[in-house]
Design a protein that fits this description.
Layout: H1 8-27, H2 29-41, E1 98-99, H3 110-124, H4 137-145, E2 154-156, E3 162-167, E4 175-180, E5 185-189, E6 198-201, E7 210-213, E8 220-224, E9 228-233, E10 238-244, E11 249-254, E12 261-266, E13 271-275, E14 285-287, E15 296-299, E16 306-310, E17 315-319, E18 332-334, E19 341-346, E20 353-358, E21 362-367, E22 374-375, E23 377-382, E24 397-398, E25 405-409, E26 417-421, E27 426-430, E28 442-445, E29 452-455, E30 460-463
Parallel strand pairs: 18-22
Antiparallel strand pairs: 1-10, 2-30, 3-4, 4-5, 5-6, 7-8, 8-9, 9-10, 11-12, 12-13, 13-14, 15-16, 16-17, 17-18, 19-20, 20-21, 21-23, 24-25, 25-26, 26-27, 28-29, 29-30
GO cellular component, one term: nucleus
Family: Belongs to the WD repeat DDB2/WDR76 family.
GO molecular function: DNA binding
Length: 464
C-alpha cells in the first residue's frame, strides 16, 4: 500500500483519517459552507422594514357603548340630570350658617322633626343633682358588669370612620352625636328604638375631629373640623359658624362653664383662643407653644386657667392667662413619652390625674395634684395602640362618674373596650361576641348614667 515503512499505529491512524475524509465528502458540506458564507457576506439594510399599514377603509371599526360614552339616543331625548358626586366627593359646605337639614331627607320630614324636637325637649330639662358623689370601687365595678350590648343598640350612624362622639347629658333619653372623616354629623336617638331614630347632617367639609354638647346649654352641639368650628343650635335648626381658619384645627375645649370661650388646637402646633360672643369668625389670639403638632387640648376641670396640650412627644400644661403670640413656656411638662402621643386628658372631678395614650404602646397616668415644672409617671400600662392607618387612633377618656377610672379601645380579641383604674389595674372589659366584632377606637361615657358608646371605623355605634 506504499506505507510499509510506517509503524502499525501510524498506519491505523492514517486509515482513520482517510475514512473520515470519504465520509465528510459524502455529506457535501462544502456546498453548505459556501451557502452560509454567501448569506453572511450579503449586504444587510440599515433599518428594519416596517409592515405596510392597512388602509383605513380596510379596518373594521370597534363597537363602542353609547351609554358609557354618555351619548343620548338620537330619537328619544332624555331629561337633563346634574352629575352626581362620587362616593367620596360631596358638595362643598359654604361658609356661614348651614341649615340643619338631614342629607337623607326625602319629602316627608316628620322623622327629622321628631328627632330635633326630642333634642330640644330634653335640653330644657335640668338634670337631678342628687347623689353626685363618686361611687366606691366595688359599687362602680358592679355598675360596669350590669351594662350589656344588644342587637337593637347597634346602628350605622355615619357613613365613614368615626373620628369623634358626644353624648347628651339627659337622664331620660339617650341621644348620641358622631362625626366622621368626611364632615358628616350623625344624630341617633337610641331611646327611640326605630329605624327612623338616626339622621345624618353635613355641616363640614373634612373630618370632624372633636365634638361637645355645651355644658350650660345642651341644645347646642359644637363640632370642630379642619377648617371650621360650628355650633349646631337645635332651637333655630342651624349650624352657626363660630370660627374659620386656613390653618387646620385638631381639637377644642371650653375655657369656662358658660362655654363662651374655647381653646382650640392646630395641627401645626399652635393654639388659639376663640370667643363665641364676637361677631367675627377669627380667633382672639393665636399662640405658638413650641409644639410641632397639637393633637388634643383639654381644660382643667377646677382651675380653668390651665389647659393641657398633647402633641408629638410633648405633653404640657399651660396657663391661658399668660399666652402670647411667641415665647410661651409651660407650667408643667409630663415626661416619658418616646413616640407620638394621641391624647391627654385631665380627670373629671379634681384634675389630679392625667391619662395619655402613646404610640409606644403605653397608657400613662400622671399625678397632677401639684403642678411642678416636671411631672413624672404615676403608673404605666402596657396596651397595644398600633391601630394602623385605617382606624382612628385610641383616646383614653375618664369616666365622668369616677375620678380614678378611664375607658380606652383595644386591639385584643375578642373585640372589646377596656376600663382601667389609675393604678394600672384592669377593672372591666366590655365585649359581646354576637354584636361587637370590630375595634371601637372612639368612646364616650354618659356623665350620670351607666351608658357607654363605642364607635368603629365603618360609622357604626355600639351602646352598652
Amino acid at each position: 500500500d506504499g506505507h510499509s515503512h510506517l509503524s502499525a499505529y501510524e498506519r491505523k491512524r492514517l486509515k482513520n483519517i482517510t475514512e473520515n475524509a470519504k465520509f465528510f465528502a459524502a455529506l457535501k458540506l462544502h456546498k453548505v459552507s459556501a451557502r452560509l458564507n454567501q448569506i453572511a457576506t450579503k449586504t444587510q439594510p440599515h433599518g428594519t422594514k416596517r409592515p405596510r399599514p392597512k388602509k383605513v377603509e380596510d379596518e373594521t371599526a370597534p363597537r363602542r357603548s353609547m351609554r358609557l360614552l354618555r351619548v343620548e339616543p338620537s330619537e328619544i331625548p332624555a331629561p337633563e340630570t346634574p352629575a352626581q358626586p362620587g362616593p367620596e366627593e360631596y358638595p362643598q359646605v359654604p361658609a356661614g350658617p348651614v341649615p340643619m337639614v338631614p342629607e337623607d331627607q326625602m319629602g316627608d320630614s316628620k322623622w327629622t322633626e321628631a328627632l330635633l324636637s326630642t333634642w330640644m325637649r330634653i335640653s330644657e330639662l335640668k338634670a337631678d343633682d342628687a347623689d353626685r358623689g363618686t361611687p366606691d370601687m366595688e359599687r362602680y365595678r358592679e355598675g360596669l358588669s350590669s351594662m350589656v350590648l344588644s342587637e337593637e343598640n347597634v346602628r350605622k350612624v355615619v357613613k365613614s370612620r368615626v373620628c369623634s362622639m358626644a353624648i347628651h347629658p339627659s337622664e331620660s333619653t339617650i341621644l348620641v352625636a358622631a362625626g366622621d372623616k368626611w364632615g358628616h354629623v350623625g344624630l341617633w336617638n337610641v331611646s327611640c328604638g326605630s329605624e327612623e331614630g338616626a339622621h345624618i347632617f353635613i355641616p363640614h367639609n373634612l373630618q370632624v375631629s372633636c365634638m361637645h354638647f355645651s355644658p350650660c346649654n345642651p341644645a347646642h352641639l359644637l363640632s370642630l373640623s379642619n377648617d371650621t368650628l360650628r355650633c349646631g343650635d337645635v332651637t333655630r335648626a342651624v349650624f352657626d359658624e363660630i370660627c374659620r381658619s386656613e390653618e387646620s384645627f385638631s381639637s377644642f375645649d371650653f375655657l369656662e362653664d358658660s362655654a363662651s370661650t374655647a381653646i382650640v388646637g392646630h395641627w401645626d402646633g399652635d393654639v388659639a383662643v376663640v370667643d363665641r360672643r364676637t361677631p367675627r369668625t377669627s380667633s382672639e389670639l393665636s399662640a405658638d407653644i413650641g409644639f410641632r403638632k397639637t393633637r388634643t387640648v383639654h381644660v382643667h376641670p377646677m382651675n380653668k386657667q390651665y389647659f393641657l396640650a398633647a402633641g408629638l412627644v410633648d405633653v404640657c400644661i399651660f396657663d391661658v392667662r399668660y399666652l402670647k403670640p411667641k415665647g410661651n413656656k409651660p407650667v408643667s411638662s409630663l415626661t416619658g413619652h418616646t413616640k407620638s402621643v394621641a391624647s391627654a386628658y385631665f380627670s373629671p372631678g379634681t384634675g389630679n390625674r392625667v391619662v395619655t395614650v402613646c404610640a409606644d404602646d403605653r397608657l400613662r397616668v400622671y399625678d397632677t395634684t401639684s403642678l411642678s415644672s416636671t411631672i413624672t409617671v404615676l403608673s404605666s400600662i402596657r396596651h397595644n395602640s398600633n391601630t394602623g392607618r385605617w382606624l382612628t387612633r385610641f383616646r383614653a377618656i375618664w369616666d365622668p362618674k369616677q375620678e380614678h377610672c378611664f375607658v380606652v379601645g383595644s386591639m385584643a380579641q375578642p373585640r372589646q373596650i377596656n376600663v382601667f383604674q389609675d393604678t394600672g389595674k384592669l377593672l372591666h372589659s366590655f365585649h359581646n361576641l354576637d354584636c361587637l366584632s370590630s375595634v371601637c377606637s372612639i368612646n364616650v361615657v354618659h356623665p350620670s348614667q351607666n351608658i357607654l358608646v363605642g364607635g368603629n371605623s365603618s360609622g357604626r355605634l355600639h351602646v352598652f
